[in-house]
Design a protein that fits this description.
- The chain is an all-alpha fold and 74 residues long.
- 76% of the residues lie in helices and 0% in strands.
- It contains four helices and no strands.
């Protein structure tokens, strides 16, 4: 079994079908998820305080996304 290294046609078609609003939303959601994973990793593997600090980025990223995306649909 080999893993695909490049996005498949279905993935490309799905990304092409997304509106700019949803693409931007997906970027913010991905950034928040990456921040959450980094925070949990730091909490358990490095330092709890550093993990807590990075964990505060998640709501900040969501808030920034809300500010950026507010009014896009109007």
């Amino acid at each position: 079994m080999t893993l695909p290294t490049a996005p498949t046609r279905n993935t490309r078609a799905l990304l092409a079908a997304l509106t700019p609003f949803h693409r931007t939303k997906l970027i913010f959601m991905g950034a928040a998820f990456a921040s959450f994973i980094l925070s949990v990793s730091l909490w358990f593997l490095v330092d709890r305080e550093l993990g807590l600090f990075v964990g505060l980025w998640v709501p900040a990223i969501h808030s920034l996304g809300t500010l950026v995306l507010t009014g896009e649909r109007q």
